[in-house]
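Students often ask what a holo structure prediction actually looks like on paper. The answer is less mysterious than it sounds. You provide the chain, you provide the ligand, and the output is a string of discrete structure tokens encoding the 3D arrangement of the protein together with dioxothiomolybdenum(VI) ion.
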Amino acid sequence: MINIDARTHVKGESIYLDDIPLINGTLYAAAFDSPIAHGKIISLNVADAENCEGVVCVLTYKNIVGENEIGGIIRDEPLLADHHVHFCGMPVALVVAETDEQARAAIKKIKVEIEPLHVITDPREAAAKNELIIPPRKFKIGDSSAAFKHCDYIFQGIAETNGQEHLYIETQGAYAIPQENNALKIYSSTQGPTAVQKAVSKVTGLAMHQIEIDVIRLGGGFGGKEDQANTWAALCAMAAQITKRPVKYSLHRMEDMRMTGKRHPYSSDFKIGLNKDFNIIAYEATFYQNAGASADLSPAVLERTLFHCTNSYFIPNVTATAYSCRTNLPPNTAFRGFGGPQGMFVIEAAITKAAEELNIDRSIIQQKNLLQTGNEFPYGQLVVSEANECWNKATSFYNVNQIKKDIEQFNAKNKLYKKGVALMPICFGISFTNTMMNHARSLVHVFSDGSVNISTGAVEMGQGVNTKILQVVAQIFSIHPNKIKINTTNTFRVANTSPSAASATADLNGKATLIACNEILKRLKQVAADELNTEEKNIEIKNEEVLLNNDKTSLDWKSLVLLAFTKRVSLSENGHYATPEVHFDKTKEKGHPFAYHVFGTAIVTVTVDCLRGIYEFDSVKVVHDFGSSMNKKIDLGQIEGGIVQGIGWMTMEEIIYNANGKLISNALSTYKIPDIYSAPKNIDVEFYHSDKDNLAIFRSKAVGEPPLMYGIGAYFALHDAIKAFNPFAKISFNAPMTPEKVLMNLYASSKEAKK
Ligand code: LUZ
Ligand code: MOS
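The corresponding structure tokens follow.
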């Protein structure tokens, strides 16, 4: 089954927000954003902007009919700045004009006077000043401080990871169209139509039933549109409400990079204790999350850092503490992995530090401590593990010993080129960590001609979820895919949805679809049974034929549907699915938050040019736990994309804010993301197949986020290669490992190295 969007994508016919045909009279909005990261607004003068050609109005917080508030988890985020600005890029005013160009020209005429206040960009400084978004969280198993007393080896260190720009190909945007009786219809490029509906409801003062959000598809989201599509929709809604005309805002790339939050940078402390056999006995970690100026999704992201702080390892004594620190950066937000990668980097750094000091191969420690089925995570859930299976299959299938030998030989022979290798096991929990979000609905209509129409809460953002949902329908009804259409995601067809996020969208919406289809199927079979004078259990529908005890009958799918219709049987159903088994008690920080876990192991090899510090990834070889993949092509695409995106985060993507909180890496000329030249020369993916019972749709495990974390192996492969050139380098754990940093490390303490 190929991706159902493939044809229109290739022909350029797929419709994104900016392709929606415009209604006559449509206005264009553009935001004036704060040039200062923290300060008190002394005066705001929009008169010159208002007098610009084509300008209809310039709106500020004073024009908001409802509340000036869009915070989803915590009410701490104004839509438009009132008396203070809290980050560079914070929207202060909205220009609404007849054309896009006129709106942006008028922005330049707005004058604001801001009294600067102290700017915090460092999460540790924020924590020291008690600028916390929420009280600290602590996960604990065993007794780490007692356990350290019995460790043979103890190592400590610091690990830093930087943020990451989402760089969805389609920028953020919205298009709001007034309807009769003050209602609004809004097209939005969002992963969370219901979140947009709620934000618009707050800002406009309209009830949710007045606000229809429609999403055709996204040109990528990666978490950046889980919460932060709300701003643009709310701004357009507010302008449409006031002007009574349609209003569109599609951000330019630099506006998007400047005004939206990114992956959270973290600064972390670790302490790891091992016994003589290299078993990890105790682990302590403290995470300082750089949340930015308001909460956004930071509390949820923080939680996932704690859930994944031991990655794919069993550690009996763990104390992990996490601080969500308020700084004067744009509010950081969801990004593929959602805090998990940041937690996993720290344990990998700790293991690397231990291996370095003990002068052993780090994979010895990794392998020794892999999760076994029945082990307990620090949060109380017992694991059903595939960690050893994936690791063992990877090391044997790809012959890791040979890879290591080849690299040793290469390094012995070459002076100015060095190769490095790292193994990277992953373990990622599937479900929203906030238990109440794990539900979905699917509205299935079978039309009297036998064609089928599906609406769910799932948002197609290139990940192929619509194709997977279509496969569910095709399989349950046993009909040809061309009889099935997946609708846009719309809050009036499917209500109260969770965002398409947490890798759980196909599972949740697929299962809801399965439930709805089975319900309709049961009715159809009953109609056939009545018609054929038999019992429902003897009826089967196969390849659009109606079978009675496996024999063909006079009925087929089309005639059966028509028959059911004439007998006044409902051909529609609204399926509801809520993940069973999941629960979590925040007061104890224990529970069973995840439906299941996804595992895998990657082997990453790199070649470093030791004269210039540049590098190429030779290969990433993966054994990945797919359960029973329902669409290998789509899943493979997710693995390849995830790996490249993970490598980008770990190696070349460098977000730089200056001390005043201004984004310096604000365009694609200064912010480098992987291209085809910097992608690994080879990505090999071996499917680890298991039929074990799990809560995935058709046992096809979630695949969206987990592979990103293979990219962490790239950082440690570079570490390994640098060490081969300069064994005395004391490499700090500070991602991304850009070519600049590689070069500095290659020649750090080189006098000592020569000795
Ligand atoms: N979003 C969310 C997520 O709200 N909760 C989660 O647990 C999550 N996990 C991954 C990605 N997005
Ligand atoms: Mo996401 S980080 O699953 O929106």
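Residues 338 and 424 are 18 Å apart (CA to CA).
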